[in-house]
C-alpha cells in the first residue's frame, strides 16, 4: 500500500499496524520493530544521533532512534538499516553495525541495533522524510535536556554498556 500526501510518500506493508503484547501494551509493527542507535565518541563522552519525531507520529515531539515496523522475513538489522535510510537518508554503506539489544514484551519485541558511522557524519547533510523534523548528535550526558521517546528512555540502562569504547 502506498499513500502520498503533504508529508511525502508513506508505504505500508502487511506488518504495519498496531498490535498488543502479552503485557497489554499497544505497539506499532505486527512482526515487531527495530531501530538504529548510531553513536560516536565525542569530546565529552559518547554522542547519539537522534531524530526529532514529527508531531503527527506516535510519541511525536520526542527524540529517539530512527526505526519502525519490521517487514515479513526481515532481520532486525535489515529493518533498522532500511528505516534509517528511509527516515534520514543515511545509507548502510556509511555505517558499521555493532551489538543489538532486544526489549521483549512477550509476543512483541523492539530490537535496537547499535552502529557507528564510517566517517564524519554531519546531520545537516541528511535527507529527512516526513517522520522527522530534525536530527542531531546529542551527548549521552545531555540526554536530560531533551524529551526522549519513552522506549529509548526506558532502554538506556540496557544500552549504555553496549556503547563499547564510547561509554568508557
UniProtKB/TrEMBL annotation:
Keywords from the UniProt entry: Hydrolase
Organism of derivation: Geodermatophilus aquaeductus
High-level lineage: Bacteria, Bacillati, Actinomycetota, Actinomycetes, Geodermatophilales
SUPFAM superfamilies associated with the record: Nudix
Matching PROSITE patterns: NUDIX (PS51462), NUDIX_BOX (PS00893)
Family annotation (InterPro entries): Nudix_hydrolase (IPR020476), NUDIX_hydrolase-like_dom_sf (IPR015797), NUDIX_hydrolase_CS (IPR020084), NUDIX_hydrolase_dom (IPR000086)
Family that this chain belongs to: Belongs to the Nudix hydrolase family.
Cofactor(s) required, per the database record: Mg(2+)
Top-level taxon of the source organism: Bacteria
Keyword presence, Transport: no
Protein name as catalogued: ADP-ribose pyrophosphatase YjhB, NUDIX family
Sequence ranges assigned to domain Nudix hydrolase in this UniProt record: 28-161
Pfam families: NUDIX
A molecular function GO annotation: hydrolase activity
Amino acid at each position: 500500500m502506498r499513500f502520498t500526501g503533504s508529508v511525502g510518500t508513506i508505504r505500508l506493508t502487511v506488518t504495519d499496524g498496531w498490535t498488543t503484547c502479552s503485557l497489554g501494551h499497544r505497539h506499532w509493527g505486527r512482526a515487531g520493530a527495530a531501530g538504529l542507535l548510531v553513536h560516536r565518541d565525542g569530546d565529552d563522552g559518547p554522542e547519539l544521533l537522534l531524530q526529532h519525531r514529527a508531531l503527527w507520529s506516535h510519541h511525536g515531539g520526542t527524540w529517539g532512534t530512527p526505526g519502525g515496523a519490521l517487514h515479513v522475513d526481515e532481520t532486525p538489522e535489515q529493518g533498522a538499516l532500511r528505516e534509517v535510510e528511509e527516515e534520514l537518508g543515511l545509507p548502510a554503506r556509511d555505517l558499521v553495525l555493532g551489538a543489538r539489544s532486544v526489549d521483549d514484551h512477550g509476543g512483541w519485541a523492539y530490537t535496537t541495533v547499535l552502529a557507528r558511522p564510517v566517517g564524519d557524519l554531519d546531520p545537516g547533510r541528511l535527507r529527512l522524510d516526513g517522520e522527522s523534523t530534525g536530527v542531531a548528535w546529542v551527548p549521552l550526558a545531555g540526554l536530560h535536556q531533551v524529551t526522549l521517546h519513552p522506549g529509548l528512555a526506558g532502554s538506556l540502562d540496557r544500552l549504555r554498556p553496549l556503547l563499547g569504547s564510547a561509554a568508557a
